[in-house]
Amino acid sequence: MKSARKSSHPKADGQIVAAFGRSYLVETADGGTVSCVARGKKGGLACGDRVTFSATGRGEGVIENALPRASLLYRSDAFREKLIAANVTQVMVVVAPVPRFSEDLISRCLVAAEHQHLRAVILLNKCDLAEQARAALESLALYRELGYPLLTVSAKHDVSPLLPWLSRQTTVLVGQSGMGKSTLINALTPEAAAATAEISAALDSGRHTTTSARLYHLDAENHLIDSPGMQEFGLGHLGLGDLAYGFVEFRPWLGQCKFNDCRHLGEPACAVSQAQREGKISAQRLASYRRLVRELAAHRPW
Ligand SMILES: Nc1nc2c(ncn2[C@@H]2O[C@H](COP(=O)(O)OP(=O)(O)OP(=O)(O)O)[C@@H](O)[C@H]2O)c(=O)[nH]1
Ligand SMILES: [Mg+2]
Ligand SMILES: [Zn+2]
């Protein structure tokens, strides 16, 4: 006998391609989309999540559950978590010579990527602004020395140099507002360009600031997620050890400090501080790390 509580609506699998608060656009295997709400869940779902949903009407449905994630990129402050994207394989940190970018934010994005064991690359966009781009490249050389690929491109001219880097990846573009993430994605996928044009026409605001993450397909194997620009990137969900591990150049020194519980804030005989004094770790990166530790300590005294 059928259970009375069992839904009579047909169930199907899909992937969240856009998340707006508590409503989600779910893409089905045939490429169609269904507008869904989540049953009994307080958010907790992200663009890129694979879900099972029940169709409740034409083009509408209810998300029943989410499948386990391979990765989750998110940021958090003391009060809440902001899910950025699920199931990505690569994080592309987009910066540009104008407006000014924050190196602290780059490091935070890299720590979040390292924590999820995701490949991370840094992309300097707007290289058509040649003079400013040269200065930006100089300050970005540090990250190339750390082992992160540093790509340069102009979304307005030619995005083809990016293609080899996007191959067989689900890539999320993250970074501050105005760096050109959406312009890059629009240049790469006609689907995205069409969606942006639609939104701009609907809002008629002339502004193109992205307000929610959106997944697009380059082709069957390559996927891109556009995300809203961020000015802050809290990492309150990480532990102290995660923070230090997220700074790749610290790793050889971890476990070498005099005190087992060294936070590398200036304690005696700290191997990380010593490495910085010897020029093996940049002062700027150590300062970024210490800012993160202090933020953590302020919210979660230990
Ligand atoms: N000169 C130049 N301008 C560009 C380039 N790429 C983007 N822009 C401009 O930069 C501005 C911001 O671009 P967006 O693509 O909206 O930036 P975004 O990173 O998506 O911003 P948010 O959605 O707010 O996070 C727009 O005016 C673009 O036309 C480029 O390669 N060269
Ligand atoms: Mg955008
Ligand atoms: Zn130490």
Summarize the structure.
This protein is an alpha/beta fold and 302 residues long. It has helices spanning 103-115, 130-145, 163-166, 181-188, 190-203, 240-246, 271-277, 283-299, and strands at residues 11-20, 23-28, 33-38, 50-57, 60-66, 72-76, 81-86, 90-95, 119-124, 150-152, 170-174, 214-217, 223-226.
Describe this structure in words.
This protein is an alpha/beta fold. The chain has 3 domains: 11-66, OB fold (Dihydrolipoamide Acetyltransferase, E2P) (Beta Barrel); 72-226, P-loop containing nucleotide triphosphate hydrolases (Rossmann fold), CATH 3.40.50.300; 240-299, Orthogonal Bundle (Ribonucleotide Reductase Protein R1, domain 1), CATH 1.10.40. It has helices at 103-115, 130-145, 163-166, 181-188, 190-203, 240-246, 271-277, 283-299, and strands at residues 11-20, 23-28, 33-38, 50-57, 60-66, 72-76, 81-86, 90-95, 119-124, 150-152, 170-174, 214-217, 223-226. The strands form 3 sheets. A 6-stranded mixed beta sheet has the order 10-9-8-11-13-12, sandwiched between helices. Strands 1-2-3-5-4 form a 5-stranded mixed barrel. It has a two-stranded antiparallel sheet with strand order 6-7. Strand 9 (119-124), helix 2 and strand 10 form a beta-alpha-beta unit. Helix 1 crosses helix 6 (240-246) and helix 4 (181-188) crosses helix 5 (190-203). The N and C termini lie far apart (55 Å). The relative contact order is 0.12. The mean pLDDT is 91. The chain binds guanosine-5'-triphosphate, magnesium ion and zinc ion (ZN). Residues 181-182, 210, 226 line the site of magnesium ion (MG).
